[in-house]
Amino acid sequence: MSLTPRWSRKKPHFPLLAVLLLVFITCSILYNEFNIQQIHESPDHGSARSTQGISFTYVKPNLPKGASEVLDRFSSCNSTKSYSGKKIRWVNPDAESVRRRSTRQESCDVFSGKWVFDNQSYPLYEESSCPYMSDQLACHKHGRSDLQYQHWRWQPHNCNLKRWNLIGMWEKLRGKRLMFVGDSLNRGQWISMVCLLQSVIPANKKTMTPNAQLTIFRAEEYNATVEFFWAPLMVESNSDDPVNHRLAERIIRPDSVLKHSSQWEHADILIFNSYLWWRQGPVKLLWCSEKNRACEELDGLEAMELAMSTWADWVASRVIPLKKRVFFVTMSPTHFWSQEWEPGSEGNCYNQMRPITTEGYWGSGSDLPTMRMVDKVLSHLGSKVSVINITQLSEYRKDGHPSIYRKFWETLSPQQLANPASYSDCIHWCLPGVPDVWNELIFHFL
Ligand SMILES: *[C@@H]1O[C@H](CO)[C@@H](O)[C@H](O)[C@H]1NC(C)=O
Ligand SMILES: *[C@@H]1O[C@H](CO)[C@@H](O)[C@H](O)[C@H]1NC(C)=O
Ligand SMILES: *[C@@H]1O[C@H](CO)[C@@H](O)[C@H](O)[C@H]1NC(C)=O
Ligand SMILES: *[C@@H]1O[C@H](CO)[C@@H](O)[C@H](O)[C@H]1NC(C)=O
């Protein structure tokens, strides 16, 4: 288990299998409650699949409840064949959006900027003062002694972010439900939001429900909630158990969103994400209309597009922009290959203490075809969804990951301990840290 990454960036055709193996080993640290087995693919290996020659049949999402069996972690496919080319039919797929309340079309692009060291105003809260802090993200508590990672402010190039205002944020939330929906990265952003907000609420006026698929932080005085709903693949899947989702294969119902949307449809402000769970190899599709548990198989990017289409159909048909705000948070980058920012080096995010300063730095963990697909789907939704484009700004923050400074649920072997980079978590983010800025961006656009 002491393999170190050895491929050279100059050779674009390094054996994919070797990379998969290495990443598998690196990521096996995440075989626990927050399991994400990530697979890195070189962008050159793009999964362009010719769609020519396939005649699509269209499927309407949101089949009535009870039409199909429940999908859970015990489900399996009875048979698997390759994808037949079915697509999701949107309610109003080509509706020309009149006016985008887009986060991108402002006069200033707040997602383009740089990190500025600012130990006067940051961190916005103390790690130890947040009773809801996660052991996965509490890096100082778990031994990290360089704390500069807590002191960086995001400075857009041509304007300023709206200054974070705790009471101002609570006033926006008064009488409302704010819900994060997604994977463990989104859960980290939710914990960040709760930690940012909770300090002004007296202990007897706030509650947190026990960990479940839906977890709710409630603040009595404001009659407001900040909730997290575990749905890493957006649509119904065999990974919807927030704790036990350590599965060999991913199975989704690409046309089923009802089960999840019934949980989130009454929220006033929704913040979605989805990405890393689609990067683990092929995904099995179990269409609601299929009998006999017959599955189809598709690569992650195209499966994500189907799931996004189902989700987009829900947004297009149910979201009234004046009544509900919907945000989509783009890919959260990983930092597994230090040679991408420091040629010749062999490490990862472990021991990285400063952000990358190269303007426009982009690592191989952020898949451009995925970004283009997300862009395409969101652009059809016009003003109904605002993009929180965190990818570029988070790419700079190789210093922001927990690496070895978090709780690991499995005992580490002596070999691992001798080589800290081998089990470093370069996926999630320390708190206080980068996700606080993602939430400042939410505040900016609310
Ligand atoms: C902030 O950082 C500067 C420069 O690194 C240092 O001199 C100063 O003592 C720090 N202030 C606080 C309050 O930590
Ligand atoms: C509290 O908020 C909910 C919506 O989240 C609303 O239905 C309810 O009327 C509010 N209660 C009070 C007392 O304002
Ligand atoms: C699996 O497929 C076979 C034949 O197609 C069928 O008889 C059987 O009922 C299926 N099993 C399930 C659990 O659907
Ligand atoms: C996010 O920003 C990047 C540039 O940093 C851009 O290429 C991409 O298209 C943007 N994505 C979306 C969905 O707006």
UniProtKB/TrEMBL annotation:
Principal subcellular localisation of the protein: membrane
Location of this chain's protein in the cell: Membrane
Keyword terms: Membrane, Signal-anchor, Transmembrane, Transmembrane helix
Membrane topology: Single-pass membrane protein
Domain Trichome birefringence-like C-terminal: 165-444
Domain Trichome birefringence-like N-terminal: 106-160
GO CC annotations, alphabetized: Golgi apparatus; membrane
InterPro entries registered for this protein in UniProt: TBL, TBL_C, TBL_N
GO function terms (MF aspect): O-acetyltransferase activity
Family indicated by similarity: Belongs to the PC-esterase family. TBL subfamily.
Protein name: Protein trichome birefringence-like 35
Annotated organism of origin: Hibiscus syriacus
Lineage: Eukaryota, Viridiplantae, Streptophyta, Embryophyta, Tracheophyta
